């Protein structure tokens, strides 16, 4: 896979946007400084070579592009893909590009800070720890009025509730954990982040660790708060199937697929016919070639070529029953399945994991 932070410029003639994904290890802390101008303007200069402007929009990673040099990089290419599609850009468009080009867990280096900066409006929109559901919007003019100062990045955002829940689960079990979640949601909704998928991913992690009944309790708790969120329903289906409760499992898969027959996760888990699995990805839009690989292909010896069809990369594979690991080769780089957050391995050796019924 590619360790490549992304930065891009979007200019529609009315506004100029700067987008940036900054990747480092997940534990990295960040701080933002504000310095009012003194005796002129500031500039940041990088040495080595000069890149001259050729296009209105521009995307770059941390690969050298001197003398037209180009490295395979899905993240740069997907940013360029969406930049070239747009004729005008609003915050939502820039956020979508940031999200599409972000590096997510389980890799060692993940997108910890993302910025969408409107130069004309002098507005800085911050996203933290690859969570694009919560934005902190700052007025640069207002911040500079405060004089020279700084602020830790995490203080702009609600706290991650999962460490609190994990500690309670470890010491008191699932019943106390559910009770704590409900209480904090009622009393401390603004303090903790209840809008992203952190708690959902905690439950999925419990499924991976064979704590499926406890995971199901937490998933059902989340479902009570949001009965329309299909990803929660899908993972409830997975948990029930892991517990060999076939009817309950199929009920949840069917709910999702009735709403959207193309729902990828529900298709992956809920439409397994004699081991035939359909992979249908909306990622890698700008890639030239994508293959599915795993133990069932002997790695790169017999990769399954995916085809582009109606905006998806898709293929079918007959897989053996039990635990199966896989990943994708995208223009010579390895990527896990971003929609299926079950994983095994570590860093560049990470693979996606699924259960074949």
Structure description:
The protein is of the alpha+beta class. Helix content is 31%, strand content 27%. The chain contains ten helices and 17 strands. It has a six-stranded antiparallel β-sheet. Helix 8 runs parallel beside helix 10 and helix 9 (246-259) runs antiparallel to helix 10 (264-270). The mean pLDDT is 92.
What order do the strands of the largest sheet run in, or round the barrel if closed? 4-1-2-5-6-7
Low-confidence runs of at least 5 consecutive residues:
none
Structural class: alpha+beta
Number of helices: 10
Measured by DSSP, the beta-strand proportion falls in 25-35%
Helix content: 25-40%
Query: Roughly how many Å apart are the termini?
Result: 29 Å
Order of helices and strands: EEEEHHEEEHEHHHHHHHEEEEEEEEE
Outline, from the CA principal axes?
A: globular
Main pleated sheet = 6 strands, antiparallel
Report the count of strand segments: 17
Mean pLDDT: 92
Rg measurement, Å: 22 Å
